[in-house]
Amino acid sequence: MALLTFSATEVAAQIAHARSCTTFLPNWNGPVGQPALILIVGTGVHLRSNGIDGTTTRIVTTEQADPSFAFAQGIDPFQDRDWMAARQAAFRDLTGQFYTDILDDVQMLTDRGHETIRLATDGHTIRVFLRRAADYLIGGAYDVPSGLGGTFRVILKDATDTHAIVQNSGNCEDFDEMLPYRVPLDALIEVGNRRAA
Predict the structure, then answer these.
(1) What's 170's domain CATH number?
(2) Which one of 41, 98, 119, 197 is least enclosed by Cβ atoms within 10 Å?
(3) Are residues 159 and 125 in the same domain?
(4) Is the pTM of this model over 0.85?
(5) Which of 104, 129, 154 is the last residue of a domain?
(6) 68: left (phi > 0), else alpha (psi -120 to 50), else beta?
(7) What confidence score (pLDDT) does residue 154 get?
């Protein structure tokens, strides 16, 4: 999992542009009738409006970038010397366009005064990443998706801003004998929180 950090001010400008338009770039399924944000992985990594207006062509391309787009920190070809290495660390050799459904969630964060927007990606999905390691209790009990359709109860051993080291605890069938393992930080589920795994 990679974490991408964006300036909330720059992202808010892209949201405002998208909301000001009445025509939108199509996605892979065809025409789109509402504002959205598109994540482009190519010459840098940036978020941009899907809106089309008369003042700019705003063509979606991975080969050229407009400095007015909201670039991920450290992956801006206009400012960062090692942007290509940073892009490859986050996405390996993957390039392309991600048509996201995060606009309303990101708008909520910018409205609340957040200075940065963090997105988590595994190369296939883009999620708004709300929490930090300091939000979790080392030694606390959490649930994590098991990969078997359910969850494991775990004890949090350590955490960074992207991952957690957990140890199974309180499970049946010898699962507690597993060695500690690493999971994405946002996979931790508060005990009693019934969100889908």
Answers:
(1) 2.30.30
(2) 197
(3) no
(4) no
(5) 129
(6) alpha
(7) 95
- 91 and 139 in a single domain? The answer is no
Taking a C-beta distance cutoff of 8 angstroms, is the pair 59, 43 a contact? no
**pLDDT per position as a tens digit, 150-175:** 899 999 999 887 789 999 999 888 88
Same domain, 57 and 101: yes
Give the model's pLDDT for residue 195: 45
CB burial of residue 135 (10 Å; 0-12, 13-18, 19+): exposed
Tokens 């930080």 identify what position? Answer: 185
Range of the domain at 113: 2-129
Instruction: Give 105's contacts (C-beta < 8 A, 6+ positions apart).
Output: 128
The length of the chain is 197
What are the tokens at 31? 């025409």
C-alpha 111/C-alpha 185 separation (Å) is 25
Q: What is the DSSP letter of 133?
A: G
The answer to whether 175 touches 166, Cβ cutoff 8 Å, is no
- Give the N- to C-terminal CA distance of the chain in Å, as an integer: 17
Residue type for position 101: D
Give yes or no: residues 35 and 54 share one domain.
yes
| pLDDT tens figures, 87-102 | 999 898 888 888 888 9
